[in-house]
Amino acid sequence: MLTKRIIACLDVRSGRVVKGVQFVDLVDAGDPAELAKRHAAAGADEIVLLDITATHEGRGTLLDTVRRAAKELFIPFTVGGGIRSADEASAVFDAGADKVSVNSAAIADPGLIDAIGRSFGAQAVIVAIDARRATNSADPVGQAEVFVSGGRTRTGRQVIEWAREAEARGAGEILLTSMDADGTRAGFDCELTARVSEAVEIPVIASGGAGTAEHFAEVFQAGKAHAALAASIFHFGIADVRALKRELAMRGVPVRLPC
Amino acid sequence: MITVIDYKAGNLTSVMKALDALGCQATVTADPEVVRRSTKVILPGVGHFQATQLLEETGLTAAVSDAIARGVPFLGICVGLQWLFEGSTEAPAVKGLSLFQGECERFAPGVKVPHVGWNEVRVNPQSRLMHGVEDRAFVYYTHSYRAPVVTETVAVTAYGGPFSGAVERGNVMGVQFHPEKSGVAGMRVLRNFVELAC
């Protein structure tokens, strides 16, 4: 049976892993290469490295960090943050990434999804969507809005409609981050995740809000997620991936064990 | 000399990195003459079956066929496995090598496509390629088209029905999963291939 993936995410700024609450208050959490290796050894199914400051500061992705992290990683490795063109994506692939994640640049130029997919295959393109519920709407989940530039800028675009366009343009997966839940450790936004997962055929990776094993079980079951991503709970040793997977297996979630 | 064929599509870095970790000196080439002189050939995976058209146009298909005819071990990964079959509905005009019977097809409706993630393989214990990989081990897949189960299938995965996770006949081998991304199990498969007598 296809298993539900647990993805360890490294939010990187200036070559260091950081993690904040709702995109601010960043705390230093270590060396990306070392943490990537540690998560893989602890049973993570994939590693995602997001250069969270790349977009608004206009920097390119940290190719050296990617190269160092990729060197001894033999599980899927995704890199995102500041990738604006197929050429920049190409440099990230050359450095050892298996997939790239595009966010702000894809909103600005949706053709970027098609361009990367043409050169490297749809499986190599993840479209990351930072979503916030439309609290003043009658349907806050259905009308949830896409934000870009690390959550700083609203786009006026609806999450579900954008996810469908991304799929139509050849995205291989959607990485959906709930900005409302991110960093709270109070649980994923299962309702939003389920709505997006039902709207597209491609896999949806849920992100934002992980705090306990129960939260993961909820997002895989009620939230219909194919994978779930978490950062801070692993970095600070609150839950190790293998322990998390054992708990999920007991709750009837198919996971890769032993790992 | 192990040769990894570069046909200007997809990403070779991960495969090269995995071979390097196994202590294996591999050469990347797009030159048919280099392929003809190789002692082992790997054709890595890419996104679309259409990309294999370039193999024909550049003379690489003929070079691989010559190498295989000499008994040189060959490993196709992902689309590289699919190319060993007769063709794929993904690009009906492009012919495969037809070393295995049948055509690759898109997953049937009812399952999410692409098939992305870690899924288990049922392993034929006779297989040299899958030797040492436990039955029901997990390997990493990412694909939208799959090859049928044939008599030479040595690993089967079920996703909306069974398909070939690995095929093997003599020294001609293919894996639909990505051994370079499948952790310990995948590295075992690559090691089995690079250590084959040739």
Please summarize what this structure is.
Chain A is an alpha/beta fold. In chain A, 34% of the residues lie in helices and 26% in strands.
What key attributes describe this structure?
heterodimer, A: 259 residues, alpha/beta, TIM Barrel, eight-stranded parallel beta barrel, 11 helices, globular, B: 198 residues, Rossmann fold, three-stranded mixed β-sheet, 29% strand
Strand content of chain B: 25-35%
Low-confidence stretches of chain B: none
In total, the number of domains of chain B comes to: 1
Summarize the main sheet of chain B. 9 strands, mixed
Looking at how many chains there are and whether they match, the oligomeric state comes to heterodimer
Extract low-pLDDT stretches of chain A: none
Report how far the terminal alpha carbons of chain B are from each other.
10 Å
What's the total helix number of chain B? Answer: 6
Shape estimate of chain A? globular
- Radius of gyration from the alpha-carbon trace of chain A, in angstroms: 17 Å
Largest interface (CB within 8 Å) is between:
A-B, 34 and 34 residues
CATH topology of chain B: Rossmann fold
